[in-house]
Automatic annotation (TrEMBL), chain A:
Natural source organism: Neoroseomonas soli
Keywords annotated in UniProt: Oxidoreductase
InterPro entries cross-referenced by the UniProt entry: 2Fe-2S-bd_N, 2Fe-2S_ferredoxin-like_sf
Record-annotated membrane-spanning stretches: none
Protein name as it appears in the record: (2Fe-2S)-binding protein
Matches recorded under Pfam families: Fer2_4
Gene3D superfamilies xref list: 2Fe-2S iron-sulphur cluster binding domain, sarcosine oxidase, alpha subunit, N-terminal domain
Keyword Oxidoreductase recorded: yes
Single Gene Ontology MF annotation: iron-sulfur cluster binding
Top-rank taxon: Bacteria
Signal peptide: none
UniProtKB/TrEMBL annotation, chain B:
Signal peptide: none
PANTHER family associated with the record: ANAEROBIC GLYCEROL-3-PHOSPHATE DEHYDROGENASE SUBUNIT B
Protein keywords: Oxidoreductase
FAD/NAD(P)-binding domain location: 4-311
InterPro entries with a match to the protein in the record: BFD-like_2Fe2S-bd_dom, BFD-like_2Fe2S-bd_dom_sf, FAD/NAD-bd_sf, FAD/NAD-binding_dom, Metab_Enz_Cyan_OpOx_G3PDH, Opine_Oxase_asu/HCN_bsu
GO molecular function: oxidoreductase activity
Pfam families (alphabetical): Fer2_BFD, Pyr_redox_2
BFD-like [2Fe-2S]-binding domain span: 371-421
The UniProt record lists the keyword Nucleotide-binding: no
Official protein name in the record: FAD-dependent oxidoreductase
Amino acid sequence: MFRTRPDARPATVEVLVEGTPVLVPEGASAAVAVLLAGLSAIREMPVTGSPRGPLCLMGVCFDCLAEIDGVPNRQACMVPVAPGMRIARQRGAREARP
Amino acid sequence: MTDFDVAIIGAGPAGMAAAVEARSRGLSVLVVDENAAPGGQVFRAAEAAAQDPAVGPAIAPGLPLVAAFRGSGATYRPATTLWHLDADEGALSLAAHGRAEDVTASRVILATGAQERPVPIPGWTLPGVMTAGAAQILLKTAGVVPSGAVVLAGQGPLVWLLAVQLARAGVASLVLETRTTSLAAALARAGGGVWAGRRLLAKGLALMAGARRRGVRVVTGIRGPRAEGEGRVQRVAWEGGSAPCDTLLLHEGVIPSTHVSRAIGLEHEWDATQACWRPVADAFGGSSHPRIAVAGDGAGIGGWEAAVAAGRLAALDAARRLGALAEDAFAARTATLLAVRAAALSPRGFLDALYAPPAAVLAPADDVIACRCEEVTAGAVRRAARLGATGPNQLKAYLRCGMGPCQGRLCAPTVAALIAEARGLAPGEVAPLRPRAPYKPVTVGMLAGGAETLQQGGK
């Protein structure tokens, strides 16, 4: 439950969150894009599967790990949005890929 | 021959000031920072956010420093992570844009800043629970605000600043203040520092009045806050009350970000007033390692004005050590800065006394999650301590706390406090967690790319 303030910072960058286009302001992080997409949880934990959203947004907590442009386990709060960026939530643990 | 005279980790107030000062002494300077723009946390995205009426006034004092840093001629590497530091060799391993790279420096200044103290309360892992700092980052980087019912729970200057900034952005929040220390008690404990810091204190009182004037509702002296809800936070409750809540923003002050300084084995000391570890440093930031200095909030919380002075002091010390500044000039230049820093630090005693974190925040009840990554409760940590886990480093083998993605950044203070309590020791008697490299995850592909570069360079 977050909203932009177009008068202060217009939403001009289109990214895909779980495949759905979302407009976000330039300078926002991928984690903010997930919040603006209306999703409260960004992943389900590997240990118990409980839902988890971003906590600190400054690179400390690692709660916002997401798959960004096909690369898993990225700190979504540390990745600024770029046009066309694909952001996907993570469910459970990642699997090693060859 | 090293790549740079000085490498600075962090482009916040201390790092930027250190870079400007070192450049003015003719030194070659590298500044590495994880964020996309300079400013650190307090002046995060300052250039982009300056025109936003919600945060503009708080950011304005940082703009001249950001401009001076941009124009300093320092090699600035934004969006870059330091993942290993070999202090003996002065070798920094960096990662940026999917590539790893090594650089060397004669002197390294760690200006890693602060992070928010973890606030482990029941339900704090529910989506919708964030830190007050996170809400400020939303505002500064993107002008974004929470909608629905917004509750700020905790204490400290940032709570009031954020309440005012949210109000300016059209969000009326509810503040649940956890402060239990009275103004009179804090004044008595702080002694003479209050008069010197009256400007800052007046600012604080004006903020609190401003928040109420703008329609912020306030409940003071609350105890036992907890987040409740199914799948996300829907309600916040405390002893004797509850309120609907869509976004809960927690804050119990900030602590030095010491991940790197602990990883490289610098000597640290327990700061009982601020309830945190800080690297041992001399007046100019010189640490226990002859190549490494620490400056700003990463060396002990003092705020941005003290950090600017500390950054410049560390840079002047670097210039002296590297032969770019004579002893008499060093003494003349540093005298003023030492006085400026002392003045900036003068209100700390009062602030630290007034906003001392509650015991339940430092060592929460058994059913509260202490380690978010591995989902370990405080009760499990206490049991492991009674079984024989003597500190956070030993606890890794019992419960994996510190081995999840955050590598103990968030849980280490809580885990150490719980172990100290279970073993009947003072917090400073339990050695802090020793983080290991890589300080942040790097992919195998990045490392392989770096190795290829090295091989080609050797041919």
